[in-house]
Structures are given as structure tokens and as C-alpha cells.
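tool_call: predict_structure(chain=1)
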Amino acid sequence: MTSWDEDTDSWHGDLVSWQGRLFSWRSNLNSRQVSIKKPERVKEFPRKIFPISVEHTLKAVCPLGTTLLVDVVGLAPEGYKTFEASSSDGILFNVEGTKFNFSFPEHPCRWYLQPSCKILLTALAPSSMMFSDWIRVTYFKSGEEHSNCVAMMNITCISFSLTVEMYGDKENQKRRKMNNEVQGPFRVEEKAQFSWKGPIMLVNCKSKNTYPPETDNYTEEILDKDKVIHRMSKMILKIHSPIGFFNIHQLIINCSHPDRVRLFGIERPTIKTSYKMILGPNKPCHTVTYLRNSEKREFYVEALSFPDADFSGMVSFTFSLLDHSNEDVLEPLIQNSRVDFRVAPWIMTPSTQPAKAIYMTSKLRNQPLRPWRFWRNTKGMLPIKWLTGSLESEPESELEPEPESRTKSNKSIPWSRYLNTILDYIYKTRIELIFCPKDEVRLDTWIGNEVAIGYTQSPQQCFPVFLDLPWSKKIKDFVFKNTLPSSLGYVIREREDDDNLDASGFLEVSPPVTVHGIFYPLGRILIGDGSLPRENITEVNQNLRKFIYAQNLQEPLELFSEWLLEGNVKGFLAFVPANDRKGFRLLLASPSACYQLFRMEQKFGHGNACVLDTVDESILHYAERVKMSIDEILADKSLQRQNDYVETCIAWNRRVLKKELGLSERDIIDIPQLFRLGWVKDPSTEKEVLRAAHFFPNMLNMIVLESFLGIPKPYGPLIQGVCCVEKKVRSLLEPLGLNCFFTDEFFGHQEDLGDAYYWINIHRKPLPFQWWTWII
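tool_result:
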């Protein structure tokens, strides 16, 4: 009663093999059905029904893994009540919708001819010749034992498979072996249900390339297999068919988003040729040529853009096998195989991650610093009418056009020591320092304001990506981009609102957090929902907002920041690593903590100690600052009311952060900080609006390099030669295992109210979590 012959791909007797299992057709007589497992990631289209007839022989193609439906009733001869079916060794059939006729024990495979009756055919092995496999249906009248009424169907069986690199199974096996695995965002009790098991493609955004690539030479591009191809996602097409099959059949590749991807392949594998683009922009489909009866083709795919408002990041490729035997008739579809790719998203790294390199503007090499300007179209410093804490005289309204005009001879603006203090700090942390080349078109602070450094990742590769949202439109030559090594990615996105202050450099991201049982292993991106000059539209730049939301990873959290002069969330919060609890602390600016500190020092008899006492008078004059003692600050009711307003704004954000990041009061540290309000004219509306700026250097604009914190020196009151504000901050942070390093420079942090992060940006190590292990 056996058996399956693996050498000859045939079966004998009662047993047949299907997907590695043995089935007995006798044991399935009662169930009238063989269980068939559908292959994964192959889209099932409505199956074509083949009406078999005694008048002519029907021909069909049956790929392995598919099922053909044969209608034995529609064209059956009149007066016939039962039928028998038989097939060649390469075909397995199953009869459904009817029952057996036991009138003739010698014919156990005879069924009643009922309206719902049909035959399901599956191929067991590729055919040796065209239409060499078959199924035969013999019709019988009532009481008839033998009949010559026979209908034939000739079949060509082929093997047609499309495979891709599937990471889900391997990753799941690895995670099962790990006891302390990290997954999310998901509910903890459901973590096994959330993962992307399909293939992933990276975006072609390397710094030496154009993003998105130019469309002129798409079809001409030839790839170096040894240097480029191995970084792409691979699809493998395997075909086994009789000789001459593709003389009358075609294989066509289509893509759901051909303008977002490029597919590379070899057109004629018998000749040693390079990989060329066969599908992509301006080429939505491709006909695979020079196919042989036994063929293995490799295709490589890359994305051209990250997920965005009009692109979900899901891309499907469909391989369609068509009958091309009759050129006058529309080509019928034989089989469709589809594979779904997900484009690897852009991920932002939190400040708690270890740093790999610090990028600094080249302007710091030319002393003194050129002030940062709030709006691109302003020629000088933007006049601000401060309510308190500044000189009575009006500040300078115009700024010299070139930094070289500021020399040692200009006594009102001393040379900056900011570079030396930063170099000293970086030397202690052993982090690489990279100066950005001079750019005549962009603002001096573009590296901090307009750029966010993140990364993109697939199972094959992970590399950093610079997200650049320049304020100036239609920049043709990006000097910095051209100097980066080819291993780094660079994405340039033009702005929708040229005057909007919100930029990619103004984003902040939290460390991994758990909120109401949902874990966000990549953190959440914090966005300020308002800033000048968009007074009437209290939202961040829409182009940037759409991009961040489309990544569908670090769920954005919108905060209220319109009360700040720059509208930057970094103006009142920061994240630092910690050696306990959640592994980090949220630092919030706190006017009330500062007042409490000053009242305590006044109580101890230090009311005459002054804020900004050690700062040069000429610098204070230029930065619109005045020295104030503790007694004067506490007696200034106007300054108290201004900080009460700021405290209210920060308290609102505090409640949102606690709720949306799953924080408690123990996870938050209040950093002493004073603010002052001023009236400033909005260039877009010509109306004056009230905004807040820092009274002394903002310590939250610190440079976080693991356990080393480069904190702007607050220049607080000196008590017995020690700054009481610094002492307080040290007492709050050093117990967490942090080393506080106060950068002894006022001008570098406060020139035109520009803070330290405007001049630098930090490339950090990727988060250890692999994003595809949770996204669906």
C-alpha cells in the first residue's frame, strides 16, 4: 500500500504526499476533502473555474501550491447521472459537493453528478513536457457500468515561487531565549502578538546620493554587486517548467508604489551583466525576459523615500504569470504572487544614548561668535522690549554683515571663550569633534536649529541619518552634506512655511517609557505646538509634523511652548540618564525652585550677592542684561508675576508629561531657573506679542554625553566664592551618578539669546531595540 518515490516524483497505491505529509485517498473518502495549507504572503485571487467538456480537450496551467477548480456539471452530456475521475501521477484531485455512488463495488471512485459538484486539482511536481499531465472524467448513465463518454483536461504543472528574507521567525526564536527581552509599544500581556515578520527595505539616502534620487538617469544606473547590492533587500524567483513554456507565457512584475522604490535585476543571466533598474519611477512594470525552464533570478530592492503623509511605507510587489499563447485575446491571468515590504523608518535618538560624535558650526573657529537671529529675513537683532532685567537704553538695532568686522578693537563685544570651554569638556568625555564646513547661504546656527540626527535600521544594516529642514528654500549646494562619508544618510525636506521657526533641530525625544501598560521602547517625540512668528497658527511646521507622524514609531507628544520666545521645548525641559528607577530623569525649569533657593540664601544673610556678577559689563550691555542682587530680585514684584506666569505654563506641560510618559514626581527634578517677559513684534503680523526668555543662561540646554553633563554656567550669586545655583544643581544631579561640568562662558550661550544647542548637534548610538519586533 505504499508509496511515494522521491527520485521519480510519483506516487503509487493509496498514499500521496502533500507538503511533507502522507495522505490516503481512501481515508479521505468520507471527508471528501484534503486539507491544504495556503502559502504565506501570497495574495489569493478568485480562482478560475474550468468547465470540462467531452467535445474538446481543455488545456490549463497549474502552478504548485495553487488549486484549479474543474466544473464537471456545466457541460456534462444530458442523461448522465454519475462520473468517475482519474489523473496522472503529477496531479492530486479532490471531489467536493457530492457523494459516492456505491452501486458498483468494483468502481469505488464513482460520484453522483450533482449541481454543486466540482473537482479541485493540485500539482505535485512540475511536468516533464508541455501538457503532459492530465485528468480524465468519465460520465455514466443510470445503471451503466462502462462508458466511452470521456472528457479530458491536459495540464502543465510548473513550480513558481517567490521568496524573500523573512526576519520574524529568526527574531522570535532569539527572543524566546532571552529572559529580559524588551518589546513594544504594546500591552505587556500581549507582546507576542506584535511584530512585523515580513521583509524590510532601507531608504537610499546615503550622503553621496540625492534624496530623493533624480529621475533623469534611472534606467541607466548600473549597480556594483559587490559594494552596493548586499545592502539591499533581496527577492528570489525560482521557476521549474517544461521546455518551451515561456514561449507562450509571460511573467510581469508590478509594484504598488513604483515612484517610491527601485527594483534591480539582471535581464539576461546567461550573459554576465550588471544589475540594472528594471522597475521604479517612470517604469511602473517590468516583463521578465529570457526565462529558461529551470530558472533562479535574484532581485534587489531599495526605497527612495521614508514614510510620509502620502506614503504609509508599505510597498507590495506582484509577480503575475500570464498566458500569451493568443495575441488577439486579452492575456488571462494564471497566478499572482505578492510580497509586502515595509520601508525602514527614520528614528530619533534620545539624549540619554551614548554619543559617537559632536558636530559644531565652523563659525566658532572665528571669534567672536556671530549672533543667532530669530528670523531669517531680519538684518539685525530683533528689538525686544523687556519688562524687567535689562538696561533702559535701547539695544543696537543693526548688526554688521560679516563676523570679521568684530575684532579685538571692538571693545564692546569681547572674544568668546565658548570654543575653549567646549573643547575642554569634550576632551574629558573622549568624544569625536567634527567642525561643519562654512556655508555662505545658511545661518551660522543651522546645524543645531535645522538638523536632527537619527538613524534608520534593517536587519542587514543600521546607519545614521541627518534630517535637514532648511529655512532657506531652493538651496542647490549643501556643503556639509557633500563632506560627509558615504556611510551616513542625509534627508533634505523643503519647508512649507519659510518664516516658521519650528525646525527639526527643535525636536526632543524621550527615553523608552511605559505608559498605562503600553511600552514605547523608542521613546516619544516631543513637539512644541506653537512659536513665533506663526502667531495665528499655533502648530509646528506641517511638513515636519507629517513626516514625524508617518514614521508610526515614536508616537509624538505635543506640548505647549508658544509662551517661549523661540517656541522650543528644549527651553524648559531635558532628559538625563540615571542609575536607578527608569534609567533617566526629566529635568524641568522651575522659577519657584529658584525663588525658594534665593529666599533661603537671603535668610542666611546673602541678599547682596548678585546674579551675573562675574559677567563683563560690555557683554551684559550687548546681551541686554543687568546685574541684580538677591534682594532686588525678591523685591521685584513685576519679575515675580512674570515668573508666576511661566510657572503656570510649565505646570501645564508637567501634567501632560506625567500622564503621557507615565512619570511620577520622583522621576522629575526641578532645576532653578528664572525667566523674564518681553514684547516682541511678530514679523508676519506686525503685532506685538508677549514672550518669555531666560533671565540667566538656561541650564537645561545642556550637552548630555552619558554621565557627563556640559551645563551652561548660570552665573548665579556667589556665596563664599561658590555659585549657589551650581551648588544646588550638583546636589540634585550628582547623586544619580552624573558629573556636572559647567561651561564657563556667558557669551556663547546668551548672544542674542541663542543657546548652546544652536551651535552644535550630537550623533548618538542607536537604541538597542529593533523596531520591527513590535510594529504590525
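agent: The two ends are 47 Å apart (CA to CA). Proceeding to next step.
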